From TrEMBL:
Keywords associated with the record: Heme, Iron, Membrane, Metal-binding, Monooxygenase, Oxidoreductase, Transmembrane, Transmembrane helix
GO MF term set: heme binding; iron ion binding; monooxygenase activity; oxidoreductase activity, acting on paired donors, with incorporation or reduction of molecular oxygen
Entry protein name: Cytochrome P450
Source organism of this protein record: Fusarium culmorum
Name of a matching Pfam family: p450
Lineage of origin: Eukaryota, Fungi, Dikarya, Ascomycota, Pezizomycotina
Family (UniProt): Belongs to the cytochrome P450 family.
Tagged with keyword Metal-binding: yes
Transmembrane segments: 6-27
């Protein structure tokens, strides 16, 4: 939840962008998954699922972190101007990569900026809700879906900000 002065300005947009990069890196899309399965001859059967836990781990270790800050929010690392373009993997590169990456990230920045400016969004988990490492909002895999979602759908209360 963002509190206090909500005027984002240019610095706020940069921070919003880098926070988006951080979140998408941790919970990335799987555009390369089918190639990986075929390349490594991972057996699959019709109607059966692939193991996804390792894929999530790949997204979290692709960008090296010291062990003591691995899961911490560090959006400032994406503010550097000279990092290598292949250091950010969620949209991938190459023939099956996402050609709409810039449009998707621009839409995400715009949506988040408007939401943060106009809305107050607070978690609405029930008391006693499941926790993982002390957090009620953790990544959970839903049966029959390839991508993960926040636990219990991440219930929230949304209010208009009083400006």
């Amino acid at each position: 939840m963002v509190q206090g002065d909500i005027a984002l300005g240019w610095a706020g947009i940069l921070l919003l962008t880098s926070t988006s990069y951080f979140a998408i890196r941790l919970y990335q899309q799987r555009v390369w998954f089918r190639r990986m399965v075929e390349k490594h001859n991972i057996p699959t059967l019709p109607g059966h699922s692939w193991l996804l836990g390792n894929l999530i781990a790949v997204g979290k270790i692709m960008v090296a972190y010291p062990a003591d800050v691995h899961g911490q929010l560090m959006p400032e690392r994406w503010l550097e101007q000279d990092f290598h373009r292949t250091a950010y993997r969620p949209f991938e590169l190459g023939p099956r990569g996402c050609i709409g990456q810039e449009l998707a990230l621009t839409e995400l920045r715009l949506l988040l900026a408007i939401a943060v400016r106009d809305l107050e969004i607070v978690p609405a988990y029930e008391d006693g809700a499941d926790k993982l490492y002390g957090y009620r909002a953790f990544q959970a895999h839903m049966p029959g879906e390839l991508t993960a979602h926040p636990s219990k759908g991440m219930p929230v209360r949304v209010r208009l900000r009083k400006v």
